[in-house]
Write a structure and sequence with these properties.
Number of domains: 2
Radius of gyration: 19 Å
Strand order of the largest sheet: 1-2-3
Oligomer: single chain
């Protein structure tokens, strides 16, 4: 789960930026004002978003013989078939604990989304070569446990197992 301390710190920073914007500027610079509001609203969205995931009606990760449903990043309930997955990989089990799910056709899954979610998946795909990243902090298990679960499913259902 998302640490409460992180949420408090981000909300504090957003409040600080807004306070500086409203009371602390002796000059009138529209670009500076825009930047402060943009950063503040971004921090607030980044704080509210993890709470949305935690309070989602969907289970965080669902695995079965057909595939997986990953709601750890976005609660979208989209099924990812095992035959579309080419590789499951993890860079490290240290924080942040995340697993990459590489797909044959990532655009197929990106096009099933819309709005901010679609933009997020497009950016994630560009920088990580996959739109699907499973974050263990939004699940009720450790990264090591998740690794073992993903490894057992990947050995059964996909050609390249978790590495």
């Amino acid at each position: 789960m998302v640490p409460i301390l992180m949420i408090v710190v981000v909300l504090f920073l957003a409040t600080l930026f807004i306070t500086v914007e409203l009371y602390g500027r002796p000059h009138d610079n529209r670009w500076f004002s825009f930047l402060i509001w943009f950063i503040s609203l971004g921090l607030i969205v980044l704080t509210i978003y993890p709470l949305k995931i935690i309070n989602s009606k969907y289970a965080g990760l669902i695995l079965d013989e057909e595939g997986m449903i990953d709601n750890t990043t976005f609660p979208n309930n989209i099924k990812i078939n095992w035959n579309d997955i080419t590789l499951m990989a993890y860079p490290d089990l240290k924080i942040p604990n995340h697993f990459y799910i590489y797909l044959d056709e990532p655009l197929t899954y990106i096009n099933k989304t819309s709005g901010f979610q679609k933009l997020y998946y497009q950016i994630t795909n560009k920088f990580n070569k996959t739109p699907i990243i499973i974050y263990s902090y939004s699940l009720k298990c450790s990264a090591v446990d998740l690794f073992e679960i993903l490894r057992s499913y990947s050995e059964k259902y996909i050609s390249k197992s978790v590495h």
